[in-house]
Amino acid sequence: MRNRAELYQLKRGARAWYFTDQRKAIIHAGIEYLPIRGLQRTAIEDESIDKCDTEVTFPQMHLFNAEGEDLAAIFAGKIFYGGVTITILELYQGETLVLHKGRVTQPKYDEDADTLTLVCETGESYLNRNILTRKFQYSCPNSIYDRWCGLKFEDWAFDITVTAISGLNVTFTVNPTQVLDAEGNPMFDEEGQPVMETKSYPDQWLDLGLMLKGGVHTLITTSTANSFTLYRQHVGLAVGDVFSVVPGCDQSKKMCDEKFKNWARYAGHQFIPNSNPIYTQLIK
Q: Is residue 206, in this structure, part of any structural domain at all?
């Protein structure tokens, strides 16, 4: 390939979109990059960490990958905040150069021009930000299933099948699971077949929990024994889908102890005084 060609990889969870600015599709490393005529970007400035940004403009708002999934749907309702990564490659005379690798921070729509512009920044720019780490607070500052919480996602997950969808409300049935003995080993009957059971869960068990589908997590706000409401749309969710869900935590000592038996890792401060002792006791 004598002419320079740019390849654009956009990914979120298990979904991926591959585009090129050329007139014809390009096969590179076993991946087909679909042509988008008019695809362009701004200059990539790298003289400092704070300027490692670029804007990629697509000449149309609806962009489909080989599986027919619309990239624009990812940004509906700000669901892209879960993380859309972008990699820009340059091909020239058989050589591959990585021009930019980072994440999408903002989509911008121009309905008059029918364009979608993605503001992208590098990982270095993201890491250079000043962010809040730990807080001295009454409730637990840990996020459930993170390394400080210590609970394992797979230990608390169970599979469900979607039976109905109405807006953000999802109705489901719990899938059967294999019975475990007292030591946690799977049980089999006399014929060697697994012993199955269908568990039931109470209302509010999944409140503030998560669903995992296609490598993407979406927050569950409220729930009943056979339905839950999502915080935002999960792209591609359909009736008949099977995926995992896990219960959530309100970060209180009571729930940490009674629901998850995880009091040893509770990081909230239960005895914060109502008044600041610096002003009420030390300074007279």
A: yes
Q: Is 66 left (phi over 0), alpha (psi -120 to 50) or beta?
A: alpha
Distance CA 218, CA 249 (A): 15
Q: How confident is the model at residue 130 (pLDDT cuts 50, 70, 90)?
A: low
Would you call 124 helix, strand, or coil by DSSP? helix
Do 108 and 182 belong together in one domain?
no
Same domain for 73 and 172? no
- Please give the Cα distance from 204 to 223 (Å, whole number): 5
CB 18 within 8 A of CB 9: yes
* Residue range(s) defining the domain that contains residue 77: 5-127
Whether the predicted model's global pTM rises above the 0.85 cut: no
Separation CA 182–CA 204 (nearest Å): 27
* Structural domain count, the chain: 2
| Contact indicator for 225, 204 with CB cutoff of 8 Å | no
Termini Cα distance of the chain = 79
Residue 89's CATH number: 2.40.30
